[in-house]
Amino acid sequence: MALYENHRFRGCWITADEDIEKRAAVYFRKRFHMDDCPGHAVVLLSGLGIVTVLVNGKEPDDTVLNPGQTQYSRTVYYRAFSIGELLVPGENEILITLGHGFYNEANGVWNWQNASWRNSPRMICDLVTEDETLLCSDL
Question: Of 47, 75, 99, 130, which has the maximum CB count within 10 A?
Fold first, then answer.
């Protein structure tokens, strides 16, 4: 989305656990209140690993394996999920599941378990409207 190509994340990279040998996916949940819903809202999200997003229990689209594997020491992708139609006046919730993917591969024929970038999965996330950042990942 060209609209966000110059976006600088306000959130910080977060992880649930620094132990790279733990293999379970982790969940990040943020509950928040909105008096009025913006007409346009987007979750900008990069995950070092594989992420899924639920907003009020609903998927914003039908994609999988986001944001895509890379050679993480050179390139990291992010996704823009349009969520304006999923927000409601009152209480809202964003749930992000973060899995290991190839970022923390434990074995394999391509020797990814010895990759220089291998670490516990982490993510960075901002919830933005056309004129402000409403939420961001924090410690």
Answer: 47
- For residue 113, report the phi and psi dihedrals to the nearest 5 degrees: -65, -15
Query: How far out from the chain centre does Cα 50 lie?
Result: 8
**pTM over cut 0.85:** yes
DSSP secondary structure letters along 15-80: -S---TT--S-EEEEEEEEESS--S-EEEEEEEESEEEEEETTB-SSS--SBS----TTT----EE
Q: Angle at Cα 73 formed by Cα 138 and Cα 96, nearest 5°?
A: 35
Residues recorded for the chain: 139
What confidence tens digit (pLDDT) does each residue in 76-110 have? 999 999 999 999 999 999 999 999 888 888 877 77
φ/ψ of residue 53, rounded to 5: -125, 135
